[in-house]
Amino acid sequence: MIFLIAIVTGTTVFIILYLVSAAFSVKQEQVAMRLKVIDENLADRSAIDAELAKPFAKRVILPLTDQFGKSLAKLTPQAIRRIMAEKLAAAGGFGGMGTDGFLAVSISLALGLPIVTGVFTILGGAKADKIVGFSLIAVSVGAAIPYLLLQRKINSRKTSIQKDLPDVLDLLTVSVEAGLGFDGALAKLAEKMKGALVEEFSRVLQEIRVGIPRRDALHALGVRANVPDLSLFTSSLVQADQLGVSIGNVLRVQSVAMREKRRQRAQEKAMKAPVKMLIPLVIFIFPPIFIVLLAPAVIRIVMTLGPK
Predict the structure, then answer these.
(1) Per-residue pLDDT at 22 exceeds 50
(2) What would the mean pLDDT of 183-208 be, rounded to a whole number?
(3) DSSP letters along 69-109, please?
(4) Straight-line distance from the first to the last Cα atom of the chain, in angstroms, rounded to the nearest whole number
(5) How many domains does the chain have?
(6) 150, 163: one domain
(7) What is the pLDDT of residues 142-177, one digit of tens each?
(8) Which of 27, 50, 61, 181 is at 20 to 30 A from 79, Cα to Cα?
(9) How are the residues of the chain apportioned to helix, strand and coil, as percentages rounded to the nearest 5?
(10) Residue 40: pLDDT above 70?
């Protein structure tokens, strides 16, 4: 009897506690909703952290320059914008800026640098003519700095493309002769090598994949890079595509020709080296040698012929 009472009491207490917990507990849908809200907050927080992790230039400066550049785009002639777009493409980009951003930076420097120069010259107590002169020089310097940096990057990229071209052609030749198509050889090239030229060929591959004809993509590569050897190579590929010539033969011939040209350029630089060495030799080496050799004789002549 006591055992039965204990079982009934325990069961009753369990049922009461279950009902109370069920009445006051949060439902499963509410839990799922709260978890979803937490996940969304975490996602928003991760996006904020990712944005804050970017460099200051990409978070603040680039949006401002793009905004300013869009305003200037209405005032800039289309010919200038086209030339700047071609130069930026030849340089492979310039700090992530587009044409509008680059023009905005150039105009900002051309306007901001003379203002800073004028303030410093005024604080230094300079005269009005000197203030105007220094400000005009600052305008020229501020406008020229971005273009000089851009041209330097273009020249460096052209040198890199010209240097890597024979090795790239060797890999393309081996890939094509191994049975890959030209598109597959470009994909293998992007996988195995790095550099400015590989980036350009990767862009060609992407253009072909989105539907641009191969000859148009190769022609655009030659115009964009503006490297004579690469332009000759792309013209040969376009001509081979038009005439139905085997690309493997063209690649093999062009690879040998590019290596020969690189060897000739190295020989040309080696032949120019002695001529270039004459200038420092005459200015910095001959005078000390003359002093060391002739100074004792000059001193002795002066002592001999001088007054006793």
Answers:
(1) no
(2) 87
(3) HHHHHTTS-HHHHHHHHHHHHHHT-BTTB-HHHHHHHHHHH
(4) 149
(5) 2
(6) no
(7) 888 888 888 888 888 888 888 888 888 888 888 888
(8) 61
(9) 85, 0, 10
(10) no
